[in-house]
């Protein structure tokens, strides 16, 4: 199957790290002359899977079945976390299915294209990130770290991804430099446990300093999801002093506002410690935008525990909340518990917390009224501010412009 004739389709499931990896798969093929098409017309369908919850795994199995049904001749390459945990489930779906470890995908794609695999390391170096069907994006994710040494009791990703490890700083700097030269104006650093980045004595703040020095003032950086334990004084001070070149926005997963529930989740902090960190962040950056993840209905969660989460959300003034109903993931300690919360209770709590989240987002936007922020123009009529709010594009601005807007 030659690259000049290959037609492919990528199905991405799961987190932002998966999104970056899927973009790299597409970029590897596009850079060799392959063509991105709908699944029905593809010679190769790549499904990048997720297994973070039982529900995510159901969606993954459905996606592979849909790929097979949509096209009766394409090879279906299944990779990612769900495939790493349970490859037999996917190979059993049909002879056209091939399960491939994520680190081997680039070499396989280059080989399939009839080309040499040099120049494409396990991170996809040598190609640019692209979203299939779009022009080169103005915001680009760059994966700097993989794996996780934590073992939250609801999560199996540390099994699927393995131990934490970090990409060499010089490779990251070179990729970021190329990506900026290609037109990206905002670069989002991503990783499964991003804050654990450690290479040759350097931490995340050290890496950011290198990246600031390596790029011009027209490029800004955004820190993707980072665990509370990894936000140290060095990172806070650097963000506060960077004058917006590091977006004053953090996605800081809370998961629960109840110390009891946090302990049973094996989260390494108490509720009051989380709040103390948030206070330090706001003291250093009063206009910080803070988003979060929350799980409702974790086994054993009482109404009192849930209300503690509501109270914590209000106290932290989150600008956006991603709310998840707890979903059993077989193979995790939480899934074995006998005190599972009833589905209707989880649904009710999710609905109530979503209302809190909507109020908080409106309040965050309101407190910024009249202030100025730089916004990145990403497509016609849409721009994203430093604080991660969407605004209308000023007249005359074009995709890729960084414009000052009044909220």
Describe this structure in words.
The protein is α/β, with parallel strands linked by helices. It has three domains: 7-112, Rossmann fold, CATH 3.40.50; 139-367, tm_1862 like domain (pyruvate-formate lyase- activating enzyme, Alpha-Beta Horseshoe); 372-406, no CATH class. 36% of the residues lie in helices and 19% in strands. It contains 13 helices and 16 strands. A five-stranded parallel β-sheet has the order 2-1-3-4-5, with helices on both faces. Strand 3 (44-49), helix 2 (54-70) and strand 4 (75-80) form a beta-alpha-beta unit. Helix 7 runs parallel beside helix 8 (204-214) and helix 12 runs parallel beside helix 13 (343-367). The N and C termini lie far apart (52 Å). Keywords: 4Fe-4S, Iron, Iron-sulfur, Metal-binding, S-adenosyl-L-methionine, Transferase.
